[in-house]
Specification:
heterodimer; A: 523 residues; mainly alpha; Cytochrome C Oxidase, Chain A; 0% strand; B: 6 helices; 48% helix
Chain lengths: 523, 270
């Protein structure tokens, strides 16, 4: 294996694997930050650091790197790159060199984010970077802006690339209603990225201009407005939740159909109602992040209704998932366990979001651990489970080898238990008043034992995730040789050899009239 | 001593008179002493609505989870069940499985929205008989200014039985004045005036904590709401007024301007 070949590769599969390695490394770093925070919070008062600024840097790194360095790149970088051309029967993406550029930019972004630890004044602005603090702080806000801009740019050129690829490079006979759900979901995510990333880019650029060039966009003393930033930021960052949600639920669809060998329940409802509905609503719900920020009352009420209506497309997608299980033939493999885990975690996460859609109930729990627990269930942990399940699912295709089922399942159960201990308790103390982003809870001593249980849960889930990553490494090195199509799926990525050669197929595939990616047959 | 008692009685009389007046103007139909204290306390409304919403989502969640678990168990791979056999949907049932869930979800949404909206109005409609206090937040303290110019830091002392409105602004970055016991919070920021109100019914102490990340010491930015019995409050206020007058006495020319300053700043922005 030649390192230079990997760095300068334009093969979509190698670009995908580079994305995977980078994002799992980012996950490791951000995960260690989470464990450090849990260790710090395990006792009242200082535990492992006596400097709150250090804790704030961990918190910043955990949030920013998990979202921008792990989830978005793993989903729209690894899965999209690896699977989309294979699923539509294309030799590669439309612009292979642009694709290589996007993975380079991604690495630059992750390295910038990790330089945080070596800078004299690391950024401490949280992943939201709200002014005026991000402008007043001695921390290096420019690092934050540049990380966001570079990763955002990588994502935009990826989006252009994949929209073109799917529009023009589908195999003969592969009509839009025969696309894998994952392809639909990822396309929708890229549409959202193309529309909304520029807004985030604007917001963080304006922050840096205010801080370093002396402009006054967010300075009320000179006619600016601090709320403008929050609007711009969430106008991107709420759709960003769907940029994560859509591909991850797409991955879950792929896993659940393949491991229950069953047709998707009501395909058109899922695609046009579910995916389409989310894209349609995603741009008009951002104010629910600003329910206690001092927004105009009419906006808070208006977006309460749109936010609640998000339950409709998301509910349709859940009905599609659960319906797919009906009369299936479910094999409890490791990827399937992760996918079923997502169904339950997402159910809890989605429903605990209902109170947060109401401005009145949000007044009581906004900025508390309830919100932190909710979004970890609905997006962070559900997304991570989908990513881990997806990596297991396509592991035989990517490496040509099999992972170890025993260690895979053990890793799943440990994470599943750990997650529920940590985040269930987190929601509970949140309702009782524990605010988020606290280095210490000196005036809430009654929560100490809850914090200790959360730390225990975090340790368990940390071990579970580490087991999974070790399992991949061991499997890639000396796993058993895998079949080309171990799950018996008709989806096109399984029709080539494992691992696929450059160009994917000796002769490009075409599909017949009665073929469907979920048309499972008895073998 | 006599003076203190007098103030307390005067305050009590004024309060009851004004609340009677308010109730008379607001609800002419329901005359009587009970109606005088009619306040839509958002904290109580929050607890009720929270309970209802959590109950409803629990029912929905348990239903979905049970159906899912049942499907998983029924469809496990076993001899005779090697491949999925989901029935092919007819066009009509495909549409039905889309449209019916849409209407079910939409009706739940609108029902929830209506309840949420009612409570929201309670949060935003400040009662007519109330006490106004100005709050300026800063890194890392809560600075309160009463209508008569008395100032306190990190301790908001209020009489039981009178709704309190905070008109909030910030001198540096974002903060959020969160009183968990009263289920209320709202951000304060430079350049805008935001408000929140709560209804302290009984004497007691309540934590105030910062709920919007504001820098290194964010976790330690705490204060207290101290609810005193009306007489005690009046006595305390009397004492503070005397202190304030004494402090202002040597510099008569300067004092009024200084006291008036935060008020003028705040009203300008409204």
């Amino acid at each position: 294996m030649n390192l230079k070949e990997w760095i300068f590769t334009t093969d979509h599969k190698r670009v995908g694997v580079l994305y995977l390695i980078g994002s799992i490394a980012a996950f490791g770093i951000a995960g260690i930050m989470a464990l450090l925070m849990r260790a710090e919070l395990s006792t009242l008062g200082p535990t492992i650091t006596s400097n709150p600024a250090t804790y704030n840097v961990w918190l910043y790194t955990h949030g920013a790197v998990m979202i921008l360095g792990f989830q978005i790149p793993a989903l729209t970088g690894f899965f999209a790159n690896y699977c989309i051309p294979l699923m539509i029967g294309a030799k590669d993406v439309a612009f292979p060199r642009v694709n290589a550029l996007s993975v380079w930019l991604f690495y630059v972004g992750v390295i910038l984010a990790c330089l945080t630890f070596f800078l004299p004044d690391p950024p401490d602005v949280m992943w939201t970077g709200y002014p005026p603090y991000s402008i007043m702080t001695t921390g290096n806000t420019a690092m934050y802006s540049f990380t966001v801009l570079i990763l955002g740019f990588a994502s935009i050129i990826g989006g252009v690339n994949f929209l073109t690829t799917v529009a023009y490079m589908r195999a003969p006979g592969l009509t839009l209603n025969k696309l894998n759900i994952f392809v639909w979901c990822t396309l929708a995510a890229f549409v959202l990225q193309l529309i909304f990333v520029p807004v985030l880019g604007t917001a963080v650029t304006l922050i840096s201009m205010d801080k370093y060039l002396g402009t006054h966009f967010f300075d009320p003393a000179a006619g600016g407005d601090v709320l403008t930033y929050q609007n711009l930021f969430w106008f991107y960052s709420h759709p960003a939740v769907y940029v994560i949600f859509l591909p991850f639920i797409g991955v879950v669809y792929e896993i659940i159909t393949a491991h229950s060998k069953n047709m998707v329940f009501n395909y058109k409802m899922v695609v046009y109602g579910g995916v389409g509905g989310i894209v349609a609503l995603s741009g008009v719900v951002w104010v629910h992040h600003l329910y206690v920020s001092g927004m105009a009352d009419w906006l808070r009420i208006g977006q309460m209704i749109t936010t609640l209506m998000i339950s409709i497309p998301v509910g349709l997608m859940m009905i599609g998932l659960i319906g797919t299980l009906y009369k299936g033939s479910i094999a409890f493999t490791t990827p399937m366990l992760y996918a079923l885990g997502v169904v339950f975690l997402f159910l809890i996460g989605g429903l605990t979001g209902v109170p947060l859609a109401l401005p009145s109930l949000t007044i009581g729990v906004s900025d508390t651990y309830y919100v932190v627990g909710h979004f970890h269930y609905v997006m962070a942990v559900a997304g991570t489970f989908a990513i881990f399940g997806g990596v297991y699912h396509w592991f035989p295709k990517v490496t040509g080898k099999m992972y170890n089922e025993f260690w895979g399942k053990l890793g799943f159960w440990l994470t599943f238990i750990g997650v529920n201990i940590t985040f269930w308790i987190m929601m509970d103390v949140g309702v009782k008043g524990m605010p988020r982003r606290y280095y210490d809870y000196a005036h809430f001593p009654q929560f100490e034992s809850a914090h200790q249980w959360m730390t225990v849960g975090a340790a368990i889930l940390g071990v579970g995730f580490a087991l999974a990553v070790l399992n991949w490494i061991m499997g890639a090195i000396n796993g058993k040789k895998a079949l080309d199509n171990p799950w018996g799926s008709p989806s096109l990525e399984w029709s080539t050899v494992s691992p696929p050669p450059h160009g994917n197929w000796p002769t490009p595939p075409s599909v017949s009239e009665d073929w469907h990616p979920y048309g499972f047959k008895k073998d | 001593m006599l003076k203190k008692k007098f103030t307390a009685i005067a305050l009590g009389l004024t309060l009851s008179a004004s609340s009677l007046l308010a109730s008379a103007s607001a609800e002419p139909a329901s005359a009587g002493a009970a109606a005088a204290a009619k306040i839509n306390d958002p904290a109580k409304g929050w607890d009720t609505l929270w309970y209802h919403v959590i109950r409803d989502i629990s029912i929905i969640g348990v239903l979905f989870a049970l159906v899912t678990a049942w499907f998983i168990w029924q469809s496990r791979r076993r001899p005779g069940n090697e491949v999925g056999a989901s029935p092919k949907l007819s066009a009509a049932s495909a549409v039905g499985w889309t449209v019916i869930p849409i209407f079910v979800f939409l009706s739940i949404d609108l029902y929830t929205a209506a309840n949420g909206w009612v409570l929201w109005n309670h949060y935003r409609d400040v009662p007519a008989q109330r006490m106004e206090v100005k709050l300026e937040s800063g890194m890392y303290s809560w600075d309160y200014t009463y209508a008569n110019g008395v100032r306190t830091q990190n301790e908001l002392i209020v009489p039981a039985g009178t709704p309190v409105v905070l008109r909030m602004t910030s001198r540096d970055t974002l903060h959020s004045h969160y009183i968990p016991d009263f289920r209320v919070k709202e951000d304060s920021m430079p350049g805008r005036v935001t408000y929140l109100w709560f209804n302290p019914e009984k004497p007691g102490e309540h934590i105030v904590t910062c709920a919007e990340y504001c820098g290194v010491m964010h976790g330690y930015m705490a204060g207290r709401v101290i609810v005193k019995a009306p007489e005690e409050y009046a006595a305390w206020m009397q004492q503070e007024e005397t202190k304030l007058a004494a402090a202002n006495a040597p510099a008569v020319a300067e004092a009024p301007a200084e006291v008036a300053k935060p008020a003028a700043k705040a009203t300008k922005k409204i």
